Amino acid sequence: VSAPTLRSLAAGRRGGSSPAMARAKRRTPSARRLRAAAPLLCAAALVAHGLLAVRLQGAFVPIAPPRSSEGADRTRRALLTASLSGLGLGLAAAAPAAPAHAEAKALQDGDLDKVRAGYKDLNYLMVNWDKVTRDCSMVTTKTKQALASGKASPDLCTANPLVIRKYMGDSSIYDNFFKSDQLWVNIDAADLVPKKDEDRYSDAVEDFEKHRRQASEWAYTSSWGEANPGGGRDKVEDYLLRSKAEAQLAKESLEIIMDVLKLG
């Protein structure tokens, strides 16, 4: 046996350690390190346990269904109200905003008549669009019209886009569709919607409100088409046609509502 080996063995007997043992000792955490890390380890374990509990709860705990048809109706009406309230979030600041929350109220005498009258007016608007949305009082034989790029005017009359807002319920409290989103909730709460048509009614109401408001918004934008920087009469006509497209979609959705409520 060589002298270095003998010295190594002697050192081991005296309580020394080999290089391999030293490296293993360095890799093994000391009691002090474990005590210092104990609070962090406990906290991590609690967090992990909490996350697991939340996951398990979300995965396995079912939502109890309504115990009666009345409870189901309340849930459906709440969804209808929420969808109508959320439609106004994307509108321009100038356009009338939807109420933050619409709760069902008692249906008033004449409410259904407003729906009939509103549909009649909207149908008239679509059939006589150019006549309703244009002011020809200032037109004379000496009127000269400058050429414009983009959408051309159908005549020499001045566009009057703001009149569209009256048909959409955004011009006056006396408009037929003023606060129409509240009206639909009230009609639903009065149990005038047949069970078999509930989804059809909700979808039609949501579509009507969306297109009604967008038609009103484009009409307002059209009224500023010449005044805005880079605007012109072609912009007025372009935005007016966009309003017309939305008004047509609103009319089609309203026809479904009329059919569901048997108001035709």
Describe this structure in words.
The protein has 264 residues and is mostly helical. It contains 10 helices and 2 strands, in the order H-H-H-H-H-H-E-E-H-H-H-H. The chain has helices at residues 3-13, 19-27, 31-60, 69-86, 111-127, 129-132, 163-167, 180-189, 198-223, 233-260; strands spanning 134-135, 158-159. It has a two-stranded antiparallel sheet with strand order 1-2. Helix 4 runs antiparallel to helix 8 (180-189), helix 5 packs across helix 10 and helix 9 packs antiparallel against helix 10. The longest helix has 30 residues, at 31-60. The protein is elongated. Mean pLDDT is 74; it is low at 9-31, 51-67 and 89-101.
How would you briefly describe this protein structure?
With about 260 residues, this protein is mainly alpha-helical. It is built from ten helices and two strands, in the order ααααααββαααα.
Contiguous runs where pLDDT drops below 50 for at least 5 residues: 9-31, 51-67, 89-101
| Average residue-wise pLDDT | 74
Strand order of the largest sheet: 1-2
- Beta content comes to under 5%
Major β-sheet annotation: 2 strands, antiparallel
Global structural class: mainly alpha
Shape: elongated
Between the first and last Cα atoms, what is the distance in angstroms? 114 Å
The rounded Rg comes to 36 Å
| DSSP summary, beta strand count | 2
Helix content: 55-70%
Counting DSSP H or I runs of 4 or more residues, the number of helices is 10
